[in-house]
Amino acid sequence: MRKSVFFSVAAATALVAGASVAAEGDTLAQVKSRGELLCGVNTGLVGFASPDANGNWTGFDVAFCKALGAAVLGDSSKVKFVPLTGQTRFTGLSSGEVDVLSRNSTWTFSRDTDLKLDFAGVNYYDGQGFLVPKSLGVSSAKELDGATICIQTGTTTELNLADYFKANNMEYRPVNIDSNAEGEQQYMAGACDSYTTDASGLAATRAAFANPDQHVILPEIISKEPLGPIVRHGDNNWGDIVRWTLFALIAAEEYGVTSANIEELAKSSQNPEVQRLLGTTDDLGAMIGLDKEWAKRAIAASGNYGEIFAATIGEQTPIGLPRGLNAQWTQGGLLYAMPFR
């Protein structure tokens, strides 16, 4: 109880600080003045956000931050990556420790309203699953009655797990962890029978194992987990910049704009939407405090949405994720950019 009270007070303090950050001036001006974008990311999840031995960050969520840095500051390298745990990510954003959170975070009612956060959109449609060793002899989550399960605290995963087991009249013993690295360590040490988190996270975790084929992601998906970048309430213009940067990456894939042909299309495309997107005609950037080529730079930084997906978590990577729901709407998926006009 004392821990819960302390967390509530800390969260409330962070939210007040966040409101102060927003009141002091717009985030865009602060980022430009600083000359650096502060991006909150996972403490380490291969494929989504992880540093190499030299401290260079790569991954799906990292690529979005680089695109945003290119759009706002003209340079995708002007991004500082701030690793945040499941428990510290929202207070880190609310307090102004980071300008944007791009960290496997699910859009929920309470986070949007009670925590006073704004989700800029969905960049990955996910769902919660279960990872188990083949040696356990389990082929369904409904066979996990009485199992010990590693679970990150301060996440929707924790709540979904309780709901699922209650609905199926089963029991489990939680092993609380603070990060994916700890979850991987505890799972591999045999401290839990199963590790549960977003299915994409499980695929990333399994890919890092020395013997990934000895571990199975069970077929049940027990929740909806729409993941996306987040900003603070109270700065609508900054929210627009983050939202439309995401839309720019999605729209670029739909219209065939890639990192390889972007310069050519900027000069020759006859598609009015592409012309507006790349700043050839109109000046959409002026409406959000940026120049005409902000979206062009965002796309050029790491490629369009499809290029980023393929390079970081796609089927040809060790993570091996299919596009599935994250395909373009024209390909049977849910990805849909709002019109650039």
Automatic annotation (TrEMBL):
One of its GO terms (biological process) is amino acid transport. Residues 1-22 form the signal peptide. Coiled coil: none annotated. Keywords: Signal, Transport. It holds the Pfam family SBP_bac_3. Belongs to the bacterial solute-binding protein 3 family. This is Amino acid ABC transporter substrate-binding protein.
